[in-house]
Structure formats: structure tokens, C-alpha cells
Amino acid sequence: MPAKTILEHTLLKISSLPGAASLAVIFDPYASLNLAESIEDEQERTWQVIQYDGNDLAFRKRRPKIGLQVIWVVLPDGQRLEMPPRLTINSLADIWFRADLILDASLPGILRELVPSETWPVLPLWEQTAILGQNLQAIPAAVVDLRRYLDHNAALDESAVRALALHCLHPSLPAHEFLFQFDTPVLVLQKYLSLLWDGQWKETGRKLLQTQAQKAPRISTESIQAWLNATPRELARYIYLRRAMKRFAIPNPVNQLRGLSVLEVDPELLE
Question: How far apart are CA 168 and CA 162, in angstroms?
């Protein structure tokens, strides 16, 4: 069964090592794996985890002479806000040379392995690691789905990566539903509102959907920015009041809505 998470993928790789193996190197710049001091693989072997963050002296002092070892290569704490990451590993050539496994456990590295036919945009992948890294098994099929709606041989871009992340958050809908490939702002807005209210979005997912609706379309969305920027609560409140006023033929609805002072967004912009 394919691994669901980056941690599961990493443990499967370690478990697949032959019995004579004793040294695995895992590159995980942002320490996303959150490894403990030791890990047990599926063959019930216990591997000691030794973290390396660029401090050669401290690393060599901590590293035992014998035993099964996982060298966990991460960025120093002060550099973990950098994106993309830059690891300096030249000084440990003796370690890398003897390794039985060298694994890039970053999301870009794993996706290059899972979907080798694709060219992945690295920075957008780092930005969506928290979502995509927990849903690895869904990505290959979702990429196949996207490919049917993208230009032939076009490299995946940040909009495609966001569509994959949104699909992972809302797996009942295929990934292409989140591409926002429309030729008018009205269609963009209709799709956004449909997805916004049909899905049970948490705040992270809602903001990602909002970003996708703003940035993915290849047309100007300036005329609907007020709608895209407003919260779902404000939009629902505006639509309800606007329809009520239309039903009862209340004149000057914009001025009436302003007078009620119940909206945080300017109703004239929504009009």
C-alpha cells in the first residue's frame, strides 16, 4: 500500500534495507519528520537517530561507533525560515560514502520519486508541504486528472500545486475542479462561491481556496475582488439581505444596507 505521509514513506524506505545495512541518511531541512531519538522499522529493527544541523564537532561527538543509525540532516534553527532551504554537507563526505540509503525526505524530493515524469515547481511545493505531505497517496492520480485539463507538456505551476492541495482537503472533488480555468470574472466568482459553500472548509483551506480564486485565473479578477476578499459570513449576510430587499421592492438597497450598519464590507463594491 502506498505511503500516506512523508514519515510513512521514510519508514518504508528504511524498512526495505537489507539486513546487512546499518546507515541511512535522511535529508529533512525543516525537521518536518519530527523524529524521536530512535525509530523501529517494519522488520522490528531499532535505529538510533542522530541529528546533524551543520555542527560537525557536536555531531561526531554524539555519533556512536556501532549500531543501526539514521543520520537526520536538518537546517540549524536560525535558518529554518529560509525558503528554499540550503544545506551544507561537504564536510561529511565520509558519512555519505558509506550510507546504505540516502533519502531526500522533503516533499519535492519525494514527489520527484513518486511522479518522475513531472517537473515540479519547488517553492510552491514547500509552501503546501503541510497538506500535500500528509496525502501522498492521492497525488499521482490527481496529477493524471490535472493533466487532462492543462496545456500539453506544460510544466506544473503554483496554481496546479494549490489545486492538488485543495483536492487533498476536499477529496470528493477531482483536482481539476480547483483550477479556475474560466474566461470571465462571473464564472470565476460562481465557481468560487459554489466551492466555498459546498465544502466544509477549515480556515486554512478557506484561505487557500480564496488565494486560488484570486491568482489562478488567467484573466483579470479586479471586478470581483471585493467578493473574493470578503468572509463567507459577510457574503451570506449580504446576499440574504439583498434578496430580501429585492423581494419587498425596497428602493436604494445600497444606501439601506449602509444605513443598517450590519456589513463589514462596502455593499457598493459587492453591487
Answer: 10
Give the residues across from 71 on adjacent strands.
Answer: 25, 50
CA 236 to chain centre: 28
CA distance linking residue 83 with residue 80, whole number of Å: 8
pTM, rounded to two decimals: 0.87
The model's pLDDT over 247-271, given as tens digits with 9 standing for 90+, comes to 887 788 777 777 677 777 777 777 7
